[in-house]
Amino acid sequence: MSVPPAQAFTAAHRLYVKSLYRRYLVNSLNWYIRRDLWRQKAIEIRAEFERNRNITDPRALAIVLEQAEAKLAKEAHPDPYRPPLFPDGTKWERNIPPRMFNGEEAHH
Asked: Cβ contacts of residue 46 below 8 Å, gap of 6+?
């Protein structure tokens, strides 16, 4: 679910970086069950983003973002967590209501 980077230093760029940061956090949460261990990883991710916060050269920024996308793709969890009621979750369409028939089909 890679999103192409936006032009540097625009509102779209900020949204892209926020999306990248969130995808990093979600991916790390897929790897850590215990929140206390995950929190340490989240702090490391934040520090990594903060280190690159003041890059002003658009070319250097594009390289950093490209490397971040590649790292995220490489570290993606093979079986990510899906909330139970979301598509592909354990309860997705488990108890869907029966199909309603019109008058003709109901009489067998």
From this structure: 21
Residue 35, in any domain of the structure: yes
What's the pLDDT tens digit per position in 27-55? 999 999 899 999 999 999 999 999 998 88
What is the tens place of the pLDDT at every residue in 66-95?
999 999 999 999 988 888 878 877 777 777
Q: In this structure, is residue 63 part of a structural domain?
A: yes
Whole-structure pTM value: 0.71
Residue 78's H or E segment, with its range, is: none
> In the chain, count of helices (H) and strands (E)?
4, 0
At a CB cut-off of 8 Å and minimum separation 6, what does 7 contact? 13, 58
Residue 84 counted as domain residue: no
Is residue 31 in some structural domain? yes
> What whole-number distance in Å separates Cα of residue 49 and Cα of residue 42?
11
> Structurally, how many domains does the chain consist of?
1
